[in-house]
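ARCHIVE RECORD
Type: protein–small molecule complex
Small molecule: benzoic acid
Source of inputs: curated submission
Record status: active
Notes field left blank by submitter.
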Amino acid sequence: MDSTHDLRSWNAALYDARHAFVFEKAADLLELLQPRAGERVLDLGCGTGHLTAKIAEAGAQALGIDASADMIAQARSNYPDVSFEIADARRYRSAEPFDAVFSNAALHWIQPAEEAVKSISHALRSGGRFVAEFGGQGNVRQIVAACGQAVEAVFRQGNGASNPWYFPSIGEYAALLERNALEVRYAALFDRPTSLEDGESGMLNWLRMFGGPCFAGLNDAQAERAMQDAVERLRPHLWHDGQWTADYRRLRVVAVKAAA
Ligand code: BEZ
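STRUCTURE (tokenized, with ligand):
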């Protein structure tokens, strides 16, 4: 384990306790999926399993996969009757096809994105559907900029604002899906300003939970200093009336696997 690991690896308990908005905001994405009894549904990047469990509650045979062993352990403990596996979405291959692949707030973490899309396409039967939402072009733009500026100002490193995540435009992602036999039926890019929990600590908690990639190359103490600096840079923009708001923009897509 390297010295940066403790601060920036996934902490499933913290995720469940303080970042419930990630899965609570996905109710309408589940409506778009409309899981049906008996269907096989893959939840890609399932985290602690709350949405996989909702899919299973609808009567579908749901399988949640996530690359984080911590997240899968928490998912299994949260929902012992639901199926979960540790798996890398870039290489996932199932022997049995799925009727649907679902994914919420996960695909911006997975690069190269095309590897994940190949897995999704491979997992679906002909006519099966892919329903997903994740960060789209411009997502957390102000947060990324503040982190870059903080690293540069405090440690004279970095170029000031490099985005470590995958936040594509509709055009870019639609082309990627089409190259992989997935016909796009619906795509939307929209702002979703998101209130963070825990009042004053909300932005620092968010950075500790998710911001690790912006502070790559720093040790824990350095990253903590840079995060605190970033919080102060963000305060004039994203702190209002005792509430932090993250500048989220979502890309939502529905696509159907073309016949072979
Ligand atoms: C998001 O859900 O948009 C997001 C979460 C963590 C890091 C970056 C983006």
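CURATOR ANNOTATION: The first strand starts at residue 40 and ends at 44.
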